[in-house]
Amino acid sequence: MFEYFPGNYVWNLGVVATLNSGGLIDEVDRACRPIKEAAQRGEDAGTEDFLRAWTALTDQLVAQAEEAEKAGHTRTAKQLYGRATNYLCQAERMQSASAPGRLDTYRRVLELQEKAFETVARVEVPYEGTSLPAYFSSAGSRAPVMIMWNGLDSTKEHMYSSRHWAELAARGISCLMVDCPGSGEALRLQGLTARIDTEAWATACVDYLETRDDVDPARIGLVGWSLGGYFAPRAAAFEKRLALVVAWGANHDWGAVQRRRLQREGERPVPHYWEHVRWVWGHENLDEFIEFAADVNLDGVVERITVPFLICHGENDRQIPLEYAHRSYDQATASPDRRLRIFTAAEGGAEHIGLDHLSHTSVYIADWVADVLRTS
């Protein structure tokens, strides 16, 4: 994996994710160069410096986008707004849950993202008296559709910038990118925290999609990356209207991962980690959270998956052990078509959810989904 900040995995992960989601190396370098020294102080210290540096880059791009708009250069403006959103979203992700101004930063992310859209639209998925904010990419009338869920620290804006939806659209497949409880807008603006029984979110998403005339209700799939590698298989085990499921990172026993992280084994995805996970799941006390997290696992669950099931994992995933990919595969015996794809360092995509070569992993998943949905 490209490591701009030697020895700082968390900051490097943010840089790589940005570059593999449409960021430009020159722009990222100009933002990162002034904060190299701050990165040496560790993953938690210096995140405010990170935000300031990347906000300055965002401001520069927004000014260019506004000039392009005035000149009538709409495509150029949207490209600039898209990269500005990508940069600011990654910087916001690095802040502590209690950081002053974090909510204002995220509200700005939402405003910029809307300005970048061309074919994607914002929608609301009804959910337990409120709604889950989402973006929808339509591939046309009666098209199959993939529901896309994020993980512990990503948002629907990260899903948009990954352009996985565009790979699906090129194959005639729509995409619903959802901020589930515990993530993105659902957490930040609505206070919706994560839960173990993620089939509740899946039911809400499928119910919504079945109301749309441009969706084929018999061909609705689900993909989740990172912690979504727990969320999605769990949901597919119980929401039987789903036609297939993809674990983009095999998060089979997330509770065990938390116990390992207490011992400083393995890497963490974000700075201010323990504050972040308690925010996501709605827990104040760390000991109580660790006890609760033991139930965030797929033992006795993936056996209930009765649809095609793809598991993708990087051989050098420093956050989630590779053994969990094998465990999910070995236990999913009721799936009529289960597949395990391990990405190697030699080909790329070997790090967590393939962030070191995101397009390689994304294309593989899109091809598999298209093949399955064509025969379903």
Helix content: 40-55%
Give the N-terminus to C-terminus distance in angstroms.
Answer: 37 Å
Spatial order of the strands forming the largest sheet: 1-2-4-3-5-6-7-8
Residue share in β-strands: 5-15%
Largest sheet: 8 strands, mixed
How many strand elements?
A: 8
Detailed description of the structure:
The protein is α/β, with parallel strands linked by helices and 376 residues long. The chain folds into two domains: 9-116, de novo design (two linked rop proteins), CATH 1.20.1440; 120-375, Rossmann fold, CATH 3.40.50. The chain is 47% helix and 15% strand. It contains 16 helices and eight strands. The chain has helices at residues 9-19, 25-32, 36-39, 47-70, 74-93, 102-116, 156-162, 164-170, 184-188, 199-209, 228-238, 254-262, 273-281, 286-293, 323-331, 358-375; strands at residues 120-127, 130-137, 143-149, 174-178, 215-225, 244-248, 309-314, 338-343. Strands 1-2-4-3-5-6-7-8 form an eight-stranded mixed sheet, with helices on both faces. A hairpin with a 2-residue loop joins strand 1 and strand 2 (130-137). Helix 12 runs antiparallel to helix 14 (286-293). The longest helix is centred in the first third of the chain and has 24 residues, at 47-70. The two termini are 37 Å apart.
